[in-house]
Amino acid sequence: MTQPTNIADLLKRVLFRGAILILAVGVIGGVIGYLAVGLPGLFSALIGAAMALLFVSLTALSVLVGGKLNLGGFFAVVMGGWLLKIVIFLILVATLKGADFINGPTLFITLVASILGSLVLDTMAVTKARIPVVQG
Asked: N or C: which terminal CB in the chain sees fewer CB atoms within 10 Å?
């Protein structure tokens, strides 16, 4: 398989592989959660995986949009994306807190496993990419 030679191809690869990984973590976590605590475990794993996919997608989108701007614009978009993710996370936590269909440990473990796995995939994709660096 050829390595990406531009940022758009790299981010597409990161998003695709990240989605596959998060889907797998969601399914495996859902099965384990269901066997451990019933339907709340299944729902929690699927919600945790969906949250992780949302956050990973927002990161890739902010880097893609920011990459088309000057350095200050890049940092503004990436920081804005980071702040947006924090706000979304806090809203989701506040909304789901105390819900009967949520099992906290299952949600947490699925979310952490998905995010850590996607970080590993991101790192591997970036280190293997063949993107030229131009200094001005």
From this structure: C
